[in-house]
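Hi R.,

Here's the chain you asked about this morning:
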Amino acid sequence: NCINKDPNNANFWCSIGILYYAIGQFHDSLDAYSRAIRLNPYLWEVWYDLGVLYEACGDEEQQFKDAIDAFTQADRLRPGYAAIEYKLKQLSGQQVDLNKNLPKWLEPELPFQQTPQQNPLPQPQAQFPLEQPLVQ
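And here is the predicted structure, written out as tokens:
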């Protein structure tokens, strides 16, 4: 409904990209992020989310380069943000300083447990414990 009322709202398209990502529809997610960027290329959140998408689909070297490019653009728009710096260092193979004040959801020892307000992009590969095996 929001898109029908305001199809030129980049924030709406970013939210749609997040929803598509969450259900594993990566091509649709990419389309939504691309549209958000065309509408407003100055939203660092869209660039960050695009970087996470490329990283998640990173089975080719080009996708990792695209992820780095997206995180670099996010860093230009929001310099000094720990989550972006962490991703850039992680993808470029640099040693990550875990003593730096990183958001809790970036600490590798902790499971991913955040609300949408705290985390710009949910992880689609949630793992749920099974009470009984699926195949016996």
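One quick note: Residues 125 and 131 are 19 Å apart (CA to CA).

Cheers,
M.
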